[in-house]
Amino acid sequence: MPAPRxxxxxxxxRGSVSLELAIVxxxxxxxxxxxxxxxxxxxxxxxxxxxxxxxxxxxxxxHSTPAAGRGSALAFIADHGADTLLNADVTTASPAAxxxxxxxxxxxxxxxxxxxxxxVSQSAAGPLERFTTAxxx
Length: 137
Fold this sequence. Notes:
Blueprint: H1 16-59, H2 66-81, E1 85-93, E2 99-108, E3 119-127
Antiparallel strand pairs: 1-2, 2-3
Helix pairs in contact: 1-2
């Protein structure tokens, strides 16, 4: 009976794992960075919408002013995420009679230093509260 042959090792595959890692790792890092950037943008967008809704809630109250809604929205941003929504600006408008609108704009935080984050703009609108008498328009 012949003696078993020792397993021969192929030398052509040496270093293939290192090469594969060098090719795949930058792509994986780019995907993770993009996911984190998207999460930061989505959070800033949600914060802007919540601030706009808070501003409309205050501005549409009985005997309130659009300036009070603007101040409330800015205070909401300062309290809940001034470091998430950068360069935040709040504007108020009256799109129609008896309506108030609050628009919050800004930029999300960027993962890459020196690169501006994505623009964020959210708005909310609602009717002004008012008391009427029976039969009045």
